[in-house]
């Protein structure tokens, strides 16, 4: 019971809310919230979910708070290979196929590769097979000299982009794995924060196998209003040509 209060307080502080602000948003008394945080009052499951909703606590961590308060998890979690996820897998396959000839991939909450289309796998030509042993972490793949790091032309700019994104994701989720991954990016080499700030969109400039340069801009897509843990943690990273030369090169590869 006390552990649930500690978790709620940690999330409140992470979101930079005072007790008064959170109590006002959740429409509870400051005294009751204080009692919950100190373990003097056991919150109902509805109260836990209400507080977590206002604190934007991820679904996985909401379940952890519920368990700490002595309640059953509210959000189901399934493996991608389980029957309830069949329609999700079909949707992901449809999205990836429709994006061809442009690269697209699906990653989980820790940036491990879930699926990719042929165009994305085509960018991995020449990568050390040892780096491609599953599970493949996409962030590590992009900063590893045996992976894509040696072919990323704007490496300092791209690393700064990755570091900023990982910092935001760590702040949002409190996942220590993401914090450690952020530190790995910092240790991988110089960061060009000014280059990221000056650009309208941070491109990924990649040297192709034939010596040409492929330039991409990326978008991230997540499922709207997910209530299942695995689904809430998936992201589709789609890459689009940033210039005509890249568009033509990808079209030519698709025709071949």
**Topology pattern, helix = H, strand = E:** HHHHHHEEHHHHHEEHEH
Q: What form results from the Cα inertia axes?
A: elongated
Tell me the name of the CATH class of the largest domain: Alpha Beta
Biggest pleated-sheet summary:
5 strands, antiparallel
| Terminus-to-terminus distance | 62 Å
Question: How would you explain this protein's 3D organization?
Answer:
There is one protein chain. The protein is of the alpha+beta class and 256 residues long. It has 2 domains: 67 residues, Orthogonal Bundle (434 Repressor (Amino-terminal Domain)), CATH 1.10.260; 173 residues, Beta-Lactamase. 50% of the residues lie in helices and 11% in strands. The protein has 13 helices and 5 strands. It has a 5-stranded antiparallel β-sheet with strand order 2-1-5-4-3. A hairpin with a 5-residue loop joins strand 3 and strand 4. The protein is elongated.
């Amino acid at each position: 019971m006390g552990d649930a209060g500690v978790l709620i307080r940690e999330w409140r502080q992470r979101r930079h809310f005072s007790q008064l602000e959170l109590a006002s948003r959740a429409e509870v008394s400051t005294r009751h919230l204080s009692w919950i945080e100190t373990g003097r009052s056991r919150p109902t499951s509805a109260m836990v979910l209400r507080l977590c909703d206002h604190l934007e606590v991820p679904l996985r961590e909401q379940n952890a708070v519920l368990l700490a308060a002595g309640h059953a998890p509210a959000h189901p979690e399934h493996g991608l290979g389980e029957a309830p996820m069949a329609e999700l897998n079909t949707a992901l396959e449809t999205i990836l196929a429709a994006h061809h000839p442009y690269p697209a991939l699906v990653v989980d909450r820790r940036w491990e590769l879930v699926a990719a289309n042929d165009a994305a796998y085509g960018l991995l030509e020449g990568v050390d097979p040892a780096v491609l042993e599953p599970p493949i972490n996409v962030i590590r793949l992009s900063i590893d000299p045996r992976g894509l790091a040696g072919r990323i032309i704007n490496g300092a700019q791209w690393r700064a982009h990755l570091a900023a994104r990982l910092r935001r994701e760590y702040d949002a989720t409190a996942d220590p794995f993401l914090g450690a991954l952020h530190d790995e990016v910092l240790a991988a080499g110089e960061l060009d924060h000014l280059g990221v700030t000056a650009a309208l969109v941070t491109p990924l400039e990649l040297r192709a196998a034939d010596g040409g340069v492929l330039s991409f801009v990326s978008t991230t897509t997540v499922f709207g209003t997910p209530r299942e843990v695995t689904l809430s943690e998936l992201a589709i990273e789609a890459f689009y040509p940033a210039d005509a030369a890249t568009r033509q090169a990808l079209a030519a590869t698709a025709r071949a």
